[in-house]
Amino acid sequence: MPRFYVPDPQIEKDLLKIRGNEARHILRVLRLKLGDEIMVFDGLGNEFEGTIVEEASQSVVVKVKNIFSSKRESPIEITMAQSLLKGEKMDTLIQKATELGVNKIIPFVSSRSIPLLEKQGQLIRHHRWERIAIESSKQCGRGVIPRIEFLRSYSEMLQMVPSNSLRLILWERKGVKLKEVLEQSKRKPEIFFIVGPEGGFNEREIEESQRAGFITVHLGKRVLRAETASLCFLCILQYDLGDIG
Known about the structure:
The protein is α/β, with parallel strands linked by helices.
């Protein structure tokens, strides 16, 4: 069943109106007709199953038959703080991290981050990342769209950690195995993990994170690319504590 994102949907007498890009997609791309069934979600965990009952040039009206909560969210809350990556790597990472159930993504700049964006460039990138998260949520069936924070400095990112979360930072030079940390730590419902840029972190950044309560971990003997490490990290967390496997 096709899925469409409508933030803050207004329902009157079981009727829900879809406008904008999603309406154009229904009318001009998919060419759905009266009587076709679709699913609408609000990005906050609510889903609306219904039938198209009216079509206009710029809008579609859906008769809502069922309203329910999304059942495709992980039992753990995961925040991924990712140092800015080059080219389209960040786009791909956000797409795949959304599929793997991340709840929040915090892009940040560290000492070895190569792309340094001006203010306008940051806004353009942020808007694109939000669209990627929406489209990925539609594709994989999620009812909750991950929150994409604006680009932060390294120190600002460290101040955004929830007080009761398990704090992990990936460093290829030193640390304990992630598997050992997960086996020994108490099962916390929130996990906040940090992955650096292509050049990794320097020692000052690692020390700063440790003062903020982070445990330094690694993923084994092989040195992974930054985007590979982030997705590997997510897969392990979801397999061990979440809903994969």
